[in-house]
Structures are given as structure tokens and as C-alpha cells.
Amino acid sequence: MTDHEQQSPASFWESRYREADRAWSGRANAALEREAVDLAPGRALDLGSGEGGDALWLASRGWRVTAVDISPTALERGRAAADYAGLGERISWVEADLATWIPDGEFDLVSAHFLHSPVELPREAILRRAASAVAPSGVLLIVGHGAFPPWSTHRHEGPPLPGPDAVLTSLALPVAEWTVLTSAMVERDAVSPSGEPVVMTDAVLTLRRAVPV
Fold first, then answer.
1. Mean per-residue pLDDT, 99-119
2. In 79-107, which positions are buried (b, 16+ CB within 10 angstroms) versus exposed (e)?
3. Cα end-to-end span (Å), the chain
4. C-alpha angle 206/140/166, rounded to 5°?
């Protein structure tokens, strides 16, 4: 058993965020900007919100956002950034373990980016609950790594990362109730921790829930 596997998810991620003053860029994920840019603002749920880059981008475009993360440090950084940007009233920050947390109500957009973890994470169960929280005519956006980053120490461990088709199959959604808007492996430019330019591949799945007849 590795040191990571001996840690609880809450302990691991809180330690991860406390390692540095900032873990992420603060910018929204590219797939969110691309997939949600033309959506009419409503209620959004950001699962695994981290330091709030996606939540802030959505709030700046008129969304009311519920941002959920297991790390209080990550949430506090997001809250501070939102207050600084004058967006604090548009975002609710929720400290919770996605393994057990159940969404409250329905959302016009449910977004889950990069729910990968070296500690226990029931990803399929979390994503199924995410789908159940999408309102009629709402959108579910799931983005994962299509391939591990070149610097990752975990890229040779465990099963291959699931592509969008595999994620869709795992959700076991009623076909008549959902329309696939995007199912693709998408490349994007990024920068490694050492500052080198790299090309990353994202597995992007975007679904729209039908309105009941």
C-alpha cells in the first residue's frame, strides 16, 4: 500500500492544497469555456471545484453556482477570489466529500472536471448522481484526462483512463432522455510544472437532458 492509499481523501487533498499558495492557474478549464459559452445562464453545479476557476468564470457570465470540494483550503481560496472579483454573492461554497454528497435540487449545468485521484474516489457513482441532478433541458459536462500528463507518476498504474464513450456507457443513462452534444478526445496546449509547453488530451463528454413530453 502506498503512502497515498493510506490517507483519507480529505487528508490527502487538504495536504495537496497546503503544499503551495496556489495549486492551479485560477483560469477556467478550456473545455468549460468552449462547451458552456453559448448556454443561457441558470443554476450551475461545479463538482470538485478546487480553487474556483470554473465557478468564477460561470459566475462572471451570470450563473448562480454551487461549488463543491473536499478541501477547506481550496474553498477558502475560491471564496476570497470571488469576493475580490465582486462575485461572492453568485457562488455558494460547499465543503463535502463527493463520495457521499448528494446534490440539492436540479441544475441547468452540472460540470465535473478531472475527477481523478490517487486516493479512493468512486467516480462512476459520483457521475451518476451528477446526471440525476441535471434539470430537464440542462447540460451535463464531464471532462477527464484522455492521457496522463507527461510528468505524472501514476500514468503506468491501474487501468487505462476512460474515453468519453466509456464514460457514457458507465453512466447507464436512458437513451431517450439524453442527447450527446460532444463526445471527443480534444487536444489543448498547456504548460508543465517545470514551465515546458506540452500538449494535453481531454476526454470531453457533453450531454443534454430532454424535456419530458
1. 92
2. bebbeeeebeebbebeeebbeeeebeebb
3. 51
4. 55
Q: Quick one: the chain helix, strand, coil %, rounded to 5?
A: 30, 30, 40
Q: How many Cα atoms within 13 Å fall on the side-chain side of residue 98?
A: 29
pTM of structure: 0.89
Q: Are strands 64-69 and 91-95 parallel, antiparallel or unpaired?
A: parallel
In degrees, rounded to 5, the angle at the alpha carbon of residue 25 between the alpha carbons of residues 21 and 27 is 135
SS3 57: helix
Predicted local confidence at residue 19, as pLDDT:
77
Could you tell me the sign of the dihedral formed by the alpha carbons of 198, 54, 142, 153, in that order?
A: positive
Q: Please compute the mean of the pLDDT values over residues 21-31 and round it to a whole number.
A: 76
The tens digit of pLDDT for each residue in 121-152 reads 899 999 999 999 999 999 999 999 888 777 66
Residue 2 has a pLDDT of 47
Rounded distance between C-alpha atoms, residue 23 and residue 17, angstroms: 6
DSSP readout, 133-201?
TEEEEEEEEEEEESS--TT-SSTTSSSPPP-HHHHHHHHT--GGGEEEEEEEEEEEEEE-TTS-EEEEE
CA–CA dist 71, 101 (Å, integer): 14
Sign of dihedral through CA atoms 90, 96, 98, 102?
Answer: negative
Identify which of 99, 103, 102, 91 has the alpha carbon closest to the alpha carbon of residue 41.
Answer: 91
